[in-house]
Every structure is written in structure tokens, then in C-alpha cells.
Inverse folding.
């Protein structure tokens, strides 16, 4: 029996897709939400130091699995190799219901006004496809607010004088400060910086029918045991299902998007949990697989009318892959600063996001998430040997006396930093896999040098007796903050989707995730993904009521 | 030094006993010592143990071997990291070859000082013979850290030795500050 036609298939139940499914289902559309991973519950969470989203040496527990999901990475020298999800350079984000929002650190940043007008602010940049977004901060503002209140954000950014204007404050107060906060805040003030409480998608008080954070050690990289971390898996997706209009199918790998002879999308072909190939007819298809896999799916959807894949008439799909170059510094103190209280990250400054002398862009700086011992092993000044008695003494002396201040550098988009289809390697289902090539723009490294020096100054002012800087390499960054591969723009020749996230030459096909980000801010991108998903869904529903895209 | 030598003896004694225990229990037909390990031979385990104990030596706190790091690596080489088995086989043999060449002894039989000297040379190596060993040594360092600081469920960090060393309570105290009105933002920070 052929499955019945639905109004919308949403592919990917992460930060973007979860919201789209809920918004469409609430508007009365019949929705099928396809997710290639599983639906984990907090009870599946094993709090495993070696098997989590941050340290995945023994596997990537939030998916995808190593056995069925290879990729190919081409390095700067042109050497290519096959990688699996637990490898560091796989550029993995989670594959499960909730996507990255199940295991993330949950910082909830609004981008700044300049972040949507990077070319207008800084001009053209050689070696970069830097551009403005076709929408402004003001276009997104009401949807940022909606994300903050519907998903749930705690924090207090009222001391952040650099923030873009907001109409409504955050729904929850910040968590009580940890010890690092009490050391870093006065130091920042002495330096005339503007420290404030990081907005987090984490309950500080009961919210949304769930408990507040219990301040445990297993935070970033893990699922929350008490369900206090807010993602799409415990907010909008249950709401989507509760409408009765949305069906969620897990363990379903989408093979391709199907089109007819007129170039109209007719549905999708996907492998179900038993590896049976199914076709699902739909009026519209929404691609929300994350920047790597969304590009891959479009590129794999080839037909006579679209020989190079959907949305790819001008060879822009998969390009401008960007994430964040992380940089900062570590400081050692002559007293204990570790208090065993999660989430650890608590205080931030936005003094260096823009307006840095002679530089393009910048990034926030914040204290690091709480560290497990295995995560501190690599953190030492280069003069200290990483093994032997010296290592052991270092760990004993400094593990509880160290503070890290880090931040994401706003990357310059690079045309050749990209996802392609590998001509040879296929996954378990016979689908060509992602092939990564290219690297970062040199500006990212210059900004990192500047930002890390500011982090170090902050730590020194706070009383660090020793400190060292952490600088990023030039390699591609398409991991958890992956973005940019299906750029949003007004010109079909230099972008993939228009400002309502509709693929330029296919009316009933949408890409709604970080793929559409023109630039990725000097911030963790998730709240922007969520806000844009609310906005794009709003536009989609309005158009649906008028035209039904037929 | 005395304590270190004693621990070394204890470790080797442990490995010998473990190996012979298996040998007694099984029918040994070829006269070779049967390994009590999953992926490693007894000789390999012996070399690896010396290596791991230089990476995290025993002192007032347990070292890599007494914290079960060799067991961790052996477990992983027979399951999750099966693909690394060949790397270990080749790497450990090469370690002993080079050790023989330089000191006329297997790595495990070198003095504490000789072992450190040998590893320091390999760790700093950029060229020639030492360079390929350098790569292998980095892998062993990484796995030793995982076995020592990682979760005990994977076969290392016996009795949560490293966490105790770092004075990290286990099980952790949960729920503090959670609804503690005395610890508020206003009262603790001006």
C-alpha cells in the first residue's frame, strides 16, 4: 500500500526541523518528520567520559554510528582519507531527535545587528565571499523572542551594552554564579569590560513543565539527566506530535528528493529502519539536516532537469562551509577555582565582537564549560611535557586551579571550503557521502590572535599566575556549528535559497537550518537557527494559506 | 627509586602470574606462554606496561599500570579499536628492536633512567627511525590518558584512581545551589 500523501515532509528533527514541524502541524498541515537517528531519553544517558559529544574516542552516542556513515576528508596537501563519526575531523553534529540540542552546551545568543550586515560593515574581503544577509536583525527580532520563550532561555544580558535591542527580557533568571564567575566578573569590570550572565537554553527555575538544572558535572556533550536542558526534543517536537497532525519516523535515512518533469518537488525517497526504500508523496519538502547533510541531500537529488542536484544551477550548494575557529586562553591560579558546579560557563563579554582595530569581525569571550579530567589532559603550556612525572604533577597541581576563557571567531566565508559528493565512497544505503575540502581564511587566525590576547588579559587581571593562549589551526570547521552551505540571498546566481528559505528555482522546496546562514556570527548559532526556523515557518504557513505552492 | 623498582616488580610478577594461571588452566601444546590478554601477547603486554608506566608513573598515587591502563588498551584493541591492533603489534616490536639496538635490552628491561632517556629522544624526534616510533608513542600516550582518566566502565581508571588523585568526589554531590536561597547572585557578587 502506498503511503498517503502528506502536506509537508520535514527531513531532520534538529534545531531547525523540530521547530518547522511544530509550526506547520499547528497550522493544520499534515507533516511527516523524518529523522535518521533515534529518540534518546535522559534515561539512556550514560555520562560516559569517553563516549559523548565532546570526547567521542569510543563512539558518538548521539549518532550517527561509525559502522554505516563514513565521510571523506581532503586535507591541505590534497591527501584524502575516509573518516567515521567518532573521528575528530568527521565534522560531526549529532544525528538524533533534537539533533545537537540534546547534548549541546546550550548558549542562547542573538546575533548582533552588524552580524547580518558584514559586507556593509567591513567591505569586501579578498579570498572571501563575505556578504550581507538578505534579512536584518529587525526581521528576526520577534522570532528570537519566540524562541527564547517557547524553548526556554535563562540568563541576564542587561549589562551587555553591545547587544542588539530586545523588546522583552529573558523568561528565566540566570543560575546562581559559580566560583569562576565571582573571580572573573570584578576583573572584567576593572578592565572596563562589560560582563554579563550568559543566556542559556537551560532551566534555572521550573519551566515548560520540567525541572531546573541540578548543576552536575556532566553538562556540555551529554544529555541532561533531569531534562533541564532545553532542546527541540523536549519542547517543540512533543508539541508537534500532540497536534495529531505530525508523525515522527526515526531511523529513516532520506535518499533523495523527488521531482517531476516540470521541476516541481513531488516527495522524497527514504530508507526505513528495516532498510526498505519508501517513497513519500508531499506538497512541500523542507530540508533541515544541518549544513553538511542538507547540502549532501540536495546534491544527491539529481534528475534530468537538475543534473547537478537541486538548487545547484550555479554551483553554490555545499560551498562557504563555516563553523567557528575557537580561541582563547587558560590561566592557572594559586587557589582552587573548581567548585564542581555545572554548567560551568557562566559569564561572558561581547566587547570584542566588532570594532577591533584593523580586524574584520571578532567573537564573544566566555568562561569554559565544566571540565572532566580527560578534557583537561591536553591543556597545558607547551613547555610542560604531556607525559611522565611532569604531566602527573601538573594535573594534580592545576586541575582544580585552572580557568579557561574561550570564544568563537566569526569566520570569513570561503568559496572553496566545501561539501561535495565523494565519487567513490558510499554509505550503508549506497548513497554517496560528504567529501570535505578547503580551509579557513587567514583573517580568522588574526582575529583569534587578538581575541586570545584579550582572554589572557582578563585571566591575568583575575589573578592568574600563569597563562597561555589557545590558537586554532587553518583546517575546515564544519562540526557542531556547521553553517553556510545553502546561502540565503536575493540573487539566484550567488545563493541557493531566497529570504524565505525557498530554493530559488523550486517553489515547493525549502532549506531551513544553519545552511542558509550567510555568515555565522561570533556566537554559538543555535538560537539564530531557531529564530530563523520560526520566521521561515511563519512565511511558509502564510504562503500555504494563499497558494499551497501548487 | 626503591618504590618504583618495587612497583615494577609487582607489575611484572602480576603479568607473569596472570599468564601462567591461564597456561595451567589450558592445554599448552606448542610450549609457548599463552597470553592472558585479549588482544596482546604476554610479551607485548609487558612492553606496553613499561611504556604506560613511564607515561603516568606510580608515585604517591597509582600509576598507569596499577590503574588498569594496559587492561583498558587490551579491551579496546579487541573491540572498539580493533583496527589499531596491527599498529600496536608493529609499534611495540619496533620499540624493542630500537631498544636492543641502543641498549642491548628489551624496553621493559631498561632502567628507569634509560627508559625516560629513550622516550624523550622519541618524543622529540622529527626524522629517521625515531619518527615513525614517535607517531606510535603519541598514540600510546593518548590511549594511556583515556585509560587513566576515563570512565572505569571501559576497563581502566581502576577504583577511580585518577579521580581520587584529583580529589574529584565520586559519586558527585548533586543538587547543591539548586534551590538554595542563600546563594544568590546579589549576595555573593557585588
Amino acid at each position: 500500500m502506498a503511503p498517503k500523501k502528506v502536506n509537508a515532509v520535514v527531513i531532520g528533527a534538529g534545531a531547525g526541523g523540530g521547530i518547522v514541524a511544530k509550526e506547520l502541524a499547528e497550522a493544520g498541515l499534515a507533516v511527516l518528520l523524518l529523522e535518521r537517528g533515534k529518540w534518546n531519553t535522559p534515561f539512556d544517558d550514560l555520562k560516559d567520559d569517553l563516549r559523548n559529544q565532546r570526547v567521542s574516542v569510543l563512539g558518538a552516542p548521539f549518532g550517527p554510528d561509525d559502522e554505516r556513515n563514513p565521510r571523506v576528508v581532503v586535507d591541505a596537501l590534497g591527501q584524502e582519507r575516509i573518516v567515521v563519526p567518532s573521528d575528530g575531523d568527521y565534522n560531526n553534529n549529532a544525528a538524533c531527535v533534537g539533533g545537537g540540542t540534546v547534548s549541546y552546551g546550550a548558549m542562547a545568543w542573538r546575533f548582533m545587528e552588524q552580524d547580518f550586515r558584514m559586507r556593509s560593515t567591513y567591505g569586501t574581503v579578498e579570498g572571501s565571499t563575505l556578504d550581507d544577509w538578505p534579512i536584518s536583525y529587525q526581521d528576526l527580532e520577534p522570532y528570537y523572542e519566540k524562541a527564547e520563550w517557547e524553548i526556554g532561555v535563562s540568563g541576564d544580558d542587561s549589562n551587555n551594552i553591545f547587544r542588539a535591542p530586545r523588546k522583552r527580557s529573558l523568561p528565566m533568571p540566570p543560575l546562581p554564579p559559580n566560583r569562576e564567575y565571582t573571580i572573573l566578573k570584578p576583573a572584567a569590570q576593572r578592565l572596563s569590560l562589560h560582563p554579563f550572565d550568559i543566556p542559556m537554553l537551560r532551566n534555572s527555575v521550573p519551566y515548560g513543565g520540567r525541572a531546573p538544572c541540578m548543576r552536575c558535572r556532566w553538562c556540555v556533550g551529554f544529555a541532561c539527566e533531569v531534562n533541564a536542558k532545553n532542546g527541540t526534543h523536549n519542547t517543540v517536537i512533543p508539541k508537534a506530535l500532540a497536534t495529531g497532525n505530525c508523525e515522527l519516523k526515526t531511523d529513516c535515512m532520506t535518499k533523495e528528493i523527488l521531482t517531476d518533469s516540470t521541476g516541481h518537488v513531488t516527495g522524497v525517497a527514504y530508507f526505513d529502519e528495516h532498510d526498505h526504500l519508501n517513497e513519500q508523496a508531499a506538497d512541500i519538502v523542507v530540508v533541515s539536516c544541518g549544513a553538511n547533510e542538507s547540502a549532501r541531500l540536495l546534491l544527491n537529488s539529481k534528475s534530468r532537469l537538475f543534473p547537478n542536484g537541486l538548487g545547484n544551477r550555479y554551483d553554490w550548494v555545499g560551498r562557504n562551509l563555516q563553523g567557528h575557529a575557537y580561541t582563547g586562553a587558560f590561566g592557572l591560579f594559586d587557589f582552587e577555582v573548581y567548585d564542581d558546579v555545572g554548567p560551568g560557563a557562566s559569564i561572558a563579554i561581547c566587547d570584542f565582537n566588532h570594532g577591533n582595530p584593523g580586524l574584520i569581525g571578532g567573537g564573544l569571550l566566555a568562561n569554559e564549560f565544566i571540565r572532566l579530567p580527560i578534557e583537561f589532559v591536553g591543556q597545558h603550556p607547551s613547555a610542560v611535557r604531556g607525559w611522565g612525572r611532569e604531566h602527573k604533577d601538573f594535573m594534580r597541581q592545576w586541575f582544580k586551579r585552572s580557568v579557561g576563557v574561550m570564544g568563537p571567531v566569526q569566520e570569513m566565508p570561503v568559496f572553496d571550503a566545501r561539501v561535495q559528493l565523494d565519487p567513490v565512497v558510499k554509505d550503508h544505503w549506497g548513497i554517496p557521502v560528504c567529501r570535505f575540502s578547503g580551509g579557513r581564511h587567514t583573517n580568522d587566525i588574526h582575529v583569534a590572535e587578538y581575541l586570545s590576547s584579550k582572554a589572557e588579559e582578563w585571566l591575568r587581571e583575575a589573578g592568574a599566575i600563569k597563562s597561555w593562549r589557545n590558537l586554532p589551526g587553518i583546517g575546515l570547521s564544519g562540526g557542531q556549528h556547521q553553517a553556510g552551505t545553502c546561502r540565503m540571498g536575493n540573487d539566484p546566481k550567488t545563493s541557493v535559497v531566497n529570504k524565505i528559505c525557498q530554493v530559488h528555482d523550486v517553489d515547493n522546496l525549502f532549506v531551513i537550518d544553519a545552511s542558509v546562514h550567510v555568515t555565522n556570527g561570533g556566537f554559538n548559532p543555535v538560537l539564530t537557527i531557531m529564530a530563523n526556523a520560526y520566521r521561515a515557518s511563519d512565511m511558509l504557513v502564510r504562503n500555504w494559506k494563499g497558494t499551497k505552492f501548487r | 627509586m626503591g618504590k618504583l623498582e618495587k612497583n615494577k616488580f609487582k607489575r611484572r610478577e602480576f603479568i607473569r602470574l596472570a599468564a601462567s594461571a591461564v597456561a595451567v588452566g589450558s592445554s599448552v601444546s606448542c610450549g609457548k606462554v599463552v597470553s592472558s590478554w585479549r588482544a596482546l601477547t604476554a610479551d607485548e603486554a609487558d612492553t606496553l606496561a613499561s611504556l604506560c608506566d613511564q607515561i603516568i608513573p606510580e608515585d604517591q598515587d597509582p600509576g598507569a599500570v596499577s590503574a588498569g591502563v594496559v587492561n583498558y588498551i587490551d579491551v579496546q584493541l579487541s573491540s572498539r579499536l580493533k583496527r589499531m591492533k596491527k599498529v600496536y603489534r608493529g609499534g611495540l616490536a619496533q620499540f624493542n628492536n630500537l631498544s636492543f639496538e641502543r641498549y642491548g635490552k628489551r624496553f621493559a628491561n631498561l632502567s628507569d633512567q634509560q627508559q625516560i632517556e629513550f622516550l624523550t629522544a622519541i618524543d622529540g624526534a622529527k626524522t629517521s627511525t625515531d619518527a615513525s616510533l614517535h607517531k606510535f608513542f603519541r598514540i600510546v600516550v593518548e590511549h594511556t590518558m583515556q585509560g587513566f582518566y576515563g570512565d572505569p566502565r571501559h576497563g581502566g581508571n581502576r577504583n577511580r584512581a585518577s579521580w581520587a588523585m584529583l580529589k574529584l568526589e565520586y559519586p558527585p554531590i548533586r543538587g547543591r545551589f539548586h534551590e538554595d536561597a542563600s546563594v544568590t547572585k546579589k549576595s555573593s557578587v557585588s
Observations:
- The radius of gyration of chain A is 22 Å.
- The interface with chain B takes residues 47-50, 57-59, 173-177, 181-182, 185-186, 197, 212-217, 340-341, 372-374, 377, 385-389, 391-392, 395-396, 399-400 of chain A (CB under 8 Å).
- Chain A has a mean pLDDT of 96.
